[in-house]
Amino acid sequence: MAEVARGADSPELERFKAQVVEVAQRYAREHDLCEVVDEALKEMGLDKMNEFTKVKVLVHVPLVIPVEVRAGLVTGLDDEATKAKL
Fold first, then answer.
1. Which residues are CB-contacts of 33 (< 8 A; sequence separation ≥ 6)?
2. 42: helix, coil or strand?
3. DSSP string of 50-76, one letter each residue
4. CB-based contact 78:67 (threshold 8 Å)
5. What pTM does this model have?
6. Residues sharing a CB contact under 8 Å with residue 12, sequence separation 6 or more, in sequence order
7. CA-closest candidate to residue 16, choices 24, 39, 26, 31
8. Distances (CA, A) of 22 to 46, 59, 78
9. Is 78 exposed, middle or buried (0-12, 13-18, 19+ CB in 10 A)?
């Protein structure tokens, strides 16, 4: 393995640290150990990668439409076919 430069501002060291985090988190996801790996990275002073996941959320919202019915006449609806069904 290539030797990593020791300077605090070394670009090589920063790339190496980023690679360590990337590989560790990939293994963590594959083996369901994300919390353990995140804690280990934190202990070593390495930041975990920010990950965003796209999700779809289905939300059911109750909808109430007031309808008045009087002696066969329906008000509050504009559609004649809908009135006929009631």
1. 27
2. helix
3. P-----------------EEETTEEES
4. no
5. 0.46
6. 4, 5
7. 24
8. 11, 34, 59
9. exposed
How many residues appear in the chain? 86
CB burial of 30-62 (b: ≥16 within 10 Å; e: otherwise) equals eeeeeeebbeebeeeeeebeeeeeeeeeeeeee
In whole angstroms, give the CA distance from residue 28 to residue 20: 12
| % of the chain at pLDDT higher than 70 | 66
What is d(CA 25, CA 36) in angstroms, rounded to the nearest whole number? 10
- pLDDT digit string, tens, across residues 21-38: 889 989 988 998 888 888
